[in-house]
Prior knowledge:
By secondary structure, this protein is mostly helical. It has 20 helices and two strands. The chain has helices spanning 11-34, 42-68, 74-94, 117-144, 154-194, 211-216, 219-228, 234-254, 257-275, 280-301, 312-320, 325-334, 337-346, 357-364, 376-380, 383-391, 393-397, 406-438, 443-456, 468-494, and strands spanning 99-100, 103-104. Strand 1 (99-100) and strand 2 form a beta hairpin. The protein is globular and about 70 Å long.
Amino acid sequence: MNAIKTLKPNKSNLEIIIGLQCFFLVVLILFRFQYEQFNSHAESLIYPFSCILCGMNVWSFWSWYILTKSLFNPYLLFLLSAFLFNGGQAILEVLYIHKSGNLTAWELSDQLPPLSSETILNTLFLVIIGLGALHLGALISLGTAKVKSSSCGSKITVLVSSKNSYLIGKRLLWIALFPALFILRDAVLIVLTSGYHSLYQQDFETSYSAAPSILADFLIPGSFFLLAGSKEKSKSRLTSVIVIVIYATIRFFLGQRNQAVMPLVSLAWIWHHLIRPIPKTFLLSIGSLILFIIFPLVATTRNTAGQDRLSISFLLETFSSIDNPIIATISEMGGSMLTISYTLEIVPKDREFQMGTDYLYALFTLIPNVFGKLHPTVARGLPNHWLTEQINPNIAYMSGSYGFSFIAEAYLNFGWIGAPIALGVIGFLIVKLTSWAVKFRDPAKMAMIASFLSFFLFYARAESATVVRPLIWYSLIPYLGVCLLNHSSSKRLTR
């Protein structure tokens, strides 16, 4: 396992692409604030801005590939997730797929208040500027990345890291296995009895009683660290893959698609970059199967209780009743875009800008809740909770939620001016972290990124309170455990 350099982008190409990205954002901002009839002609501008959003996403992927010669990396995976969840409705608009049943492409439910054309247009503009700023921050971070030459001792260092990653992964699996089995078993019984939504109508464990759930969440990180240290251990590799695939299958059965697909994506990424490359056709085939067959099937059947969930004939009949699985998937994922729309309508009209308070409370999630019934961050009110209460109190009463968006959170905290800056910083930090981790394909660092990625992709349709704890508890702490073992090994070698 040799140390491998990170590809250094061509400086001239990088400067040109960053310049074009800045020019693009400035032109859009000037148009928004100089064109006096922007809102009065909102209906006629929705289609052009939908085209701009889709075109910008193509440009982002193309420009990144030109600079890095890679399309399968954590940043682009997150960017794709961000676009599908926050811009999916624009795809339907561009393709003239305006309706699904009695609902237009811009309506999430007939239970929600209708959106005006002005709000839809402003939503599109915020998503364009937000994703554009995210990509600009990523490009700048790419330009600041340093490439170091491999040292003569790097092979020994990587071998030691691989061995210790294996040890940490094995220990984490033993710690998490039995709590995970009990938690997943209880969840399956609940779903078989009452369906998917009943999972969120249970009394959530708090304080010390939440310990089994916290330990169970080490199952996937443990599998990744075990896999990262098992390049030459076929049985351990197989164990890691089996654990992740079984876990994902159970989550799909429960209806929790995000918790199922993210570990699978992370598994594919770390295997492709650390074990051996996966053929592109295989990746595309499996990805299409999950997105356009499993996703819509799970969405249609997850509220079904009883043995029907285990019936192959029932599943086939249900899937055949879906008019267009591809459109159904894009429409449902793109529904998260509407959380941005309703946030724009509520803030600052009925709720003040938070000025970074939500990000501060997200940091508080690092502290375990051992004293009160609810963690202070949850007790204060997560953005997805108060938004649901505002737009559909009945769903909120039944412990339901429409989710949220990292773009909506940036606007909620900093408004039109600060949101692009915050999102640019996020893009910069994502690339900085992943570039540091994969520079020499160190097993422990790669496992850390895979662990974080298995939680982080959901951030596209959530708030920062959902990702801070996974970054530290389930990614950084296991990595620090490997570093501690590496240090002990180095001391023994120098004696």
